[in-house]
Structures are given as C-alpha cells and as structure tokens.
C-alpha cells in the first residue's frame, strides 16, 4: 500500500525531496549542533524513495520542522523587541497554513495545522504540506497584507507572535505524532509477540501437552481475559497431566499390539488404561461439585472436541461408532452385544437430553414468571432467583449421569470383546481424540486470507 | 382425626386401601403394577426416567409424591430404601426395587434392564 502511494505521488515525492534538500541546506547553515541529525535526515529521505511504511516519511518531515521550531523559539526569545525583520530564508520554510485550508480565515490556520498534523499519517497530504511552503507563505503574506497592522513589511514578514503560536502548534503536533508512532510500534511488537506465543502453544498442544487454563480461549480470541475459577484451573492442570500419562499408555499399548506380545501383558495394559479413564471420571466428578459449568461448557477441551460435546464430554454412542470398524472380525454373539449396547446408549442419551430440555424449559419459566417488562418486585424476584438456582444445580446430576454412562459403556465394551480386540478398541479411542486435538491445533494456526 | 402410625391396626375408618406406614404404602404401590416410578412433577431427572421407559415401549405407573398429602414421609422412606442422592426418581420393576436413575441406566447399559422388563410382563417381544 505504501508503494502505491509512492508511485501515485511521484511528482510530489520528487518535489518534496527537493524542498527537503533545501531544508537540509538551511539546517546545515543555521544550526550546527544538529549535524548528526542531518545524517538521519538524509537517511530518511533515502527511505522515502522506496516503499516503506508511511510513518517513516511522515517522521522525516515532522522532524525537520520540529528542529526549526526550536530554532524559532530561540530566535524569538532573543528578539523580543525586533518584530520587524525575519531572515528571508528562514521564512521560506515556515508553512503557516496547509494547502487545503482557506487562507482568509485566521482561526482556521490553527485548526488547519492541527488537522494537517493529524492527516500527516497520509503521506500524500504531508508531502503537500511540506512542498507548499513557498506557495503558502506567499498566500499568507497576501492575506496578511491588507488586514494586519503596519508592522508588516511585505509578504514575507508575518507577525512574530503568530509565528510563535504556529510553531508551538507544530511542535505539539509533532510530539503527538511521535507519541502515536511509539504507541503503534509498541502495539505491533506486542502483536508479533502474541502470535509467536500462540504458535508455541499450538505446537506444544500438538504434542499432547495441555498448557492449562484457557489456552484455547486465548488462542481463538486473542488477548481475552478468562474468568476461570481456581478449581477449574487446578482441574485443567490435572487434565494436562492426565493427557501426558494417557499418551504414554497409548504408546505402550500400540507397541504391545504390533509386537504381538502375549495376551497377559495386553490385559494388564488394558486394565491400566481403563483404570486411567476411571481416574478421569473421578477428576471430573470432583470439579462438577464446585464448577459444573467448566465441565459442561467443554472449555477444558480443544475446539474440535467441543464440536462433539454432549453433557460435558463425548457421547457414549459415538465411542461405539468409532470402534466398530477397528475390532473386526466379530462373532455373531459379539455383534448382537455391541448393537445392543449401541441401542441402549442411544436410548439413555436421548432420555438424558430430554431431561436437560425439561430443565431448560423449567428454568426459563422460573425466570420469566412475572412479565419481563414490568419493574420487578424485589421479593418475588429474589424468590424466583432462589428457585432458579436450585434448578440450575440439578445440572450437576445430569453431567454426573452422563459421565457414568461413558464409564459404563467403556467397561461394557471391554466385557464384550476379546483381549486383542479390547486393546485395539482402546487404542482406537485414544487415537481418535489425539487426532481431534491435532485438528484443533491445525485449525488455530491455519493460514488466513484477509 | 387420628392416625396410628406403625403396622398396628388403624382405628380410623378411612378409605379402603389406606396404609399409614409409608414403607408399606410404597411396597403396596410398587407391587400393584409391572413398572412403578416414584417421581416429582418438578424434577427433571424424573422426566429422564419417564422418557427412558417410554422409549423402550413401556408404560410405567407414576406416583408424583409432591402431589401426595403425605409425600414427605414417602420421600424420606424412599431415600432410606436405596440410600441414593435423591428420593426421586425411584423405580420398581415387578414389585422389586431397581433403584435411582444411576441404577436404572447402569442396568440398561449392561443389558439387564430389558430382560427384567420382559420378566415382569412390561415388555412383549
């Protein structure tokens, strides 16, 4: 975008370079102690030639005038009495008004300059501002001629008081531009830091290490503040550790299956895995007592997992769908058992979902009770809220029951399958969730096209 | 009117099938039908229990204890019976106690609920 502006404003660009070099010469003549800044000056004009962010070209012009404003203040202080003569070449470079402002209105000069300084973020405007000093001063001189007092010698000697005021304005504008630039640069660097952090988090998560807290929310929404209870935060850390342990169990199970280790060994690994899942259910059960919504909302899981969230976790019938193809061949008896399990989990899920629906409805009725548009009677309102809270607390029972369902489904599967089948089943489930988590990481770091 | 609690004879001539002991009442009510659910009309988990049985093709008999004048006694008795977290829902099949919602669901998952229903005559193939 900067390059577009550069190419479209070529004429002005060139022009302003000339003016700038003119400035440079004045600079060198008048103010010797700004020598080092001259180099900066040249450097920044060099940059103006190429497609750089706008703030650099803006900076060069503003910097330049700022130095001269300092000089002006010194000069004016030293020349209190003499309002008559200003050195002509100094005057040439004091644009008292930007091009777009009507020269006939005195107050608008100040407005013009401050708005000009605001618009300095647009390089083309700024270059106009810089390039027009001679023209503008002439206009200023013309305006001043007929209207001001006799102390005006000609078009090149405006009132020093005005000059001082204008210079002060320019100084203020320059300072605020600098502040803005510093702020923007700070924002940019923070943004880059944040993107870097997000990448690190995603990479870490892809390896199955959950960094705790609402890293999900942070990744999706940027710097959102996450209101997570301390119990929930503790749970997230325990879950992260559980995931690590789970990963080790799966690795061992996988190698045991592929190395065709004896069934006794497999059985031990299977029992360990099931016990590990039981541990997870127990962890959840503890948190459900204090913060059911953290579980229910699925904030402890990754986004892709949350797509399939049902009552704070996976659907038991989903588990069966996942393993169906992984444990073949099945005997007829096994098939009957598994299809039966699928049906009963579906029926149980449906019943729980309908119970939850009833809860929602009941809650709505409680809250709406009186009309919502009239100002509430405090007593009835508080009573309603108390009832609503007790209803809301029954959510715990639903989440707990859903977790029971998950646990029982897993154990029932183990009952129905042979040892090797059960091993493959557990591995399949572990791999499925691993892939969902990986999907979440990829999703969060996907390239976005603006 | 006076009531005499306990299993002694009731001296007050009320309706025919009055049993003053809540436990007795429960047993009597449970035995009367194949599937009996003690429920609360405001309880959502009871709604879940009802929906589950309906989805299996069973028509349970439902007692809403919040609408019973001696519902509180019943509630306490039910809680004592199965020692669960809540008095309702409590399910009886074929006169025998199955338990609260967790027992019902567990038995459904492990495949024992449907045979039980068939045995009680609540389900026909």
Automatic annotation (TrEMBL), chain B:
InterPro entries: GlrX-like_pln_2 (IPR011905), Glutaredoxin (IPR002109), Thioredoxin-like_sf (IPR036249). The keyword Protein biosynthesis does not apply. It comes from the Eukaryota. PROSITE patterns: GLUTAREDOXIN_2. It holds the Pfam family Glutaredoxin. One of its GO terms (cellular component) is cytoplasm. Belongs to the glutaredoxin family. CC-type subfamily. This is Glutaredoxin domain-containing protein. It comes from Salvia splendens (Scarlet sage).
């Amino acid at each position: 975008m900067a390059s577009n502006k550069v190419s479209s404003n070529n004429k002005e660009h060139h022009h302003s370079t000339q003016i700038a070099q003119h400035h440079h010469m004045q600079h060198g003549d008048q103010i010797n102690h700004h020598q080092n800044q001259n180099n900066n000056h040249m450097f920044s004009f060099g940059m103006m030639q190429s497609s750089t962010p706008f703030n650099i070209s803006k900076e060069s012009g503003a910097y330049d005038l700022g130095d001269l404003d300092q000089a002006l203040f010194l000069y004016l202080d030293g020349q209190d009495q003499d309002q008559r003569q200003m050195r002509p070449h100094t005057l040439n470079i004091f644009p008292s008004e930007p091009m777009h402002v009507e020269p006939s209105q005195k107050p608008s000069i100040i407005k013009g300059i401050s708005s000009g300084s605001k618009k300095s973020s647009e390089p083309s405007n700024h270059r106009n501002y810089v390039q027009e000093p001679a023209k503008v001063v002439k206009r200023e001189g013309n305006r001043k001629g007929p209207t001001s007092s006799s102390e005006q010698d000609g078009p090149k000697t405006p009132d020093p008081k005005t000059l001082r005021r204008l210079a002060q304005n320019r100084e203020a504008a320059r300072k605020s531009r600098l502040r803005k630039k510093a702020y923007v640069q700070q924002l940019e660097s923070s943004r880059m830091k944040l993107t870097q952090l997000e990448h690190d988090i995603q990479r870490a998560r892809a390896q199955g290490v959950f960094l705790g807290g609402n890293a999900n929310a942070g990744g999706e929404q940027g710097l959102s503040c996450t209101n997570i209870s301390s119990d929930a935060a503790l749970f997230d850390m325990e879950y992260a550790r559980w995931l690590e342990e789970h990963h080790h169990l799966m690795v061992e199970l996988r190698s045991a299956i592929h190395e065709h280790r004896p069934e006794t060994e497999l059985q031990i690994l299977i029992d360990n895995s099931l016990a590990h899942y039981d541990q997870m259910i127990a962890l959840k059960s503890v948190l459900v007592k204090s913060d059911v919504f953290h579980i229910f909302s699925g904030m402890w899981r990754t986004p892709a997992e949350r797509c399939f969230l049902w009552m704070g976790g996976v659907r038991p019938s989903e588990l069966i769908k996942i393993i169906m193809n992984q444990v073949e061949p099945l005997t007829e008896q096994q098939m009957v058992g598994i299809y039966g399990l699928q049906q009963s989990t579906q029926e149980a899920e449906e019943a729980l979902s309908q119970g939850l629906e009833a809860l929602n409805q009941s809650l709505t009725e409680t809250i709406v009770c009186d009309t919502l548009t009239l100002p509430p009677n405090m007593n009835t309102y508080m009573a309603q809220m108390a009832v609503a809270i007790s209803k809301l607390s029954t959510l715990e029972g639903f989440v707990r029951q859903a977790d029971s369902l998950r646990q029982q489904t897993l154990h029932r599967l183990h009952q129905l399958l042979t040892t090797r089948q059960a091993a493959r089943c557990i591995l399949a489930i572990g791999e499925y969730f691993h892939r969902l988590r990986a999907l979440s990481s990829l999703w969060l770091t996907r390239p976005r096209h603006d | 009117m006076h009531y005499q609690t306990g299993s002694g004879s009731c001296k007050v001539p009320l309706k025919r099938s009055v049993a003053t002991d809540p436990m007795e009442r429960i047993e009597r009510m449970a035995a009367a039908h194949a599937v009996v659910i003690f429920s609360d009309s405001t309880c959502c988990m009871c709604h879940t229990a009802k929906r589950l049985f309906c989805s299996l093709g069973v028509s349970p008999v439902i007692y809403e204890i919040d609408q019973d004048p001696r519902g509180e006694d019943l509630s306490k008795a039910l809680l004592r019976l199965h020692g669960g977290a809540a008095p309702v829902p409590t399910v009886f099949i074929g006169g025998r106690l199955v338990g609260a919602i967790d027992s019902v669901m567990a038995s459904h998952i492990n495949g024992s609920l449907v045979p039980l229903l068939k045995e009680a005559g609540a389900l026909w193939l």
